[in-house]
Design the sequence.
């Protein structure tokens, strides 16, 4: 079986290959009467689009999205809204250069998926990585734009926090800076360092890994499930499902192993608004698989791009030992364009759990959950 669908109530199915005529998706389960046009989706695709700086692949894809179904003009307002039926989205591939891949047609690129596709299906589309190409993730970004419209007040933002050994200074974090540099980096000084470092990596024909942080604010308490389909489990699965992702952590993540119980405890007090206030967020906004109402904080690590100009030892499909060099256009660090992809996956998971919560529980329980007996 090949699973090309994720989500339960907000359900996304993608299709298409890197060098096929088009890529697309069907978003099923979106509630009706939500204003939706291409203009709501395109800005997110523009963030992920290749060829925008010397630090990403030079493939030139406008990634112009078309909505094929699932929308209609609302009689009262004249605005285009969702109808509750499947929303099909399509993006044409316009800048394929399949000849770049003919030299590696029969040769496995170490770190890429050709070998495992052959092991599973007995064949693979070697052009640009075929279905294993991150081109597919454009459709996740498109679906994420719809997901963002489902949860009232939801804000999902991502940032690149580390490239290779170079980390941002968290004290210098400024969300406004993320759109001012080609790295989606929240620290202007670190971004300048990233540029110098990545120029060196690129000129050597090499590549490098990265860490991305995604923060979702405006997530109401109560989303998730207590045992299976925990919110953090679903987030981890969705992020791990992005190409090249090798690690995911929530809140304090792996650093929690070094904390004492008292350091890790997110202590509670009553806030000025009469609601509970957590004094820290080591939990990353999830306790017992259920959202706390605090920001959801997730990080994921991507490996260095496997398509590099440095020769690597490998074998071909006929069982012969050889060496491979991958020419063509590649991202020297896939972590940059992974930022909008990570945001989209987080938005889709939260929208799915929001709809599931609405289906099972309806109105959230009112605070305080109990009144003291006289
Ligand atoms: C935004 C983005 C762009 C990518 N571009 C490339 C690329 O140009 N060359 C490459 O070898 N891998 C690239 N990848 C990674 C491959 O798609 C991925 O490594 C491959 O499908 C094998 O899957 P795995 O690494 O998840 O095991 C990219 C990943 C992302 C997220």
Sequence:
């Amino acid at each position: 079986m090949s699973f090309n669908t994720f989500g339960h109530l907000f359900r996304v199915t993608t299709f298409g290959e890197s060098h096929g005529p088009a890529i697309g998706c069907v978003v099923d389960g979106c509630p009706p009467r939500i204003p939706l046009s291409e203009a709501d989706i395109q800005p997110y695709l523009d963030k992920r689009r290749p060829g925008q700086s010397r630090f990403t692949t030079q493939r030139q894809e406008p990634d112009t999205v078309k909505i094929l179904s699932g929308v209609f003009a609302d009689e009262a307002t004249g605005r285009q809204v969702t109808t509750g039926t499947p929303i099909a989205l399509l993006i044409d591939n316009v800048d394929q250069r399949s000849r770049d891949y003919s030299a590696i047609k029969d040769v496995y690129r170490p770190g890429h998926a050709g070998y495992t596709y052959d092991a599973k299906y007995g064949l693979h589309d070697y052009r640009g990585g075929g279905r294993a190409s991150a081109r597919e993730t454009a459709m996740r970004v498109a679906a994420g734009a719809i997901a963002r419209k489902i949860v009232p007040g939801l804000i999902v933002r991502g940032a690149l926090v580390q490239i290779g050994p170079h980390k941002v200074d968290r004290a210098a974090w400024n969300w406004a800076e993320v759109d001012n540099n080609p790295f989606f980096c929240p620290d202007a000084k670190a971004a300048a360092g990233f540029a110098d470092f990545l120029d060196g990596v690129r000129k050597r024909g090499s590549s490098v890994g990265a860490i991305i942080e995604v923060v979702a604010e405006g997530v109401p308490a109560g989303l998730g499930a207590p045992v299976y389909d925990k919110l953090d489990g679903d987030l981890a699965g969705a992020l791990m499902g992005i190409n090249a992702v090798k690690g995911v952590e929530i809140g304090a993540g792996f650093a929690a192993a070094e904390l004492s119980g008292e350091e890790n405890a997110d202590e509670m007090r009553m806030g000025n608004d009469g609601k509970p206030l957590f004094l820290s967020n080591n939990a990353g906004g999830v306790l017992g698989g259920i959202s706390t109402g605090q920001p959801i904080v997730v990080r994921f690590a991507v490996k260095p791009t496997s398509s590099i100009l440095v020769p690597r030892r490998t074998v071909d499909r006929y069982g012969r030992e050889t060496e491979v060099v991958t020419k063509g256009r590649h991202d020297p660090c896939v972590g940059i364009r992974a930022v909008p992809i990570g945001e989209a996956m987080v938005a889709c998971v939260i929208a799915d759990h929001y709809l599931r919560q609405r289906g099972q529980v309806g109105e959230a329980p009112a605070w305080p959950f109990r009144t003291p007996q006289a």
User: Anything to note?
Assistant: Residues 57, 112-113, 129, 132-134, 137, 242-244, 305-307, 330-331, 334, 337-338, 341 surround flavin mononucleotide (CB under 6 Å). The mean pLDDT is 95. The first strand starts at residue 5 and ends at 6. Residues 338-360 form the longest helix (23 residues).
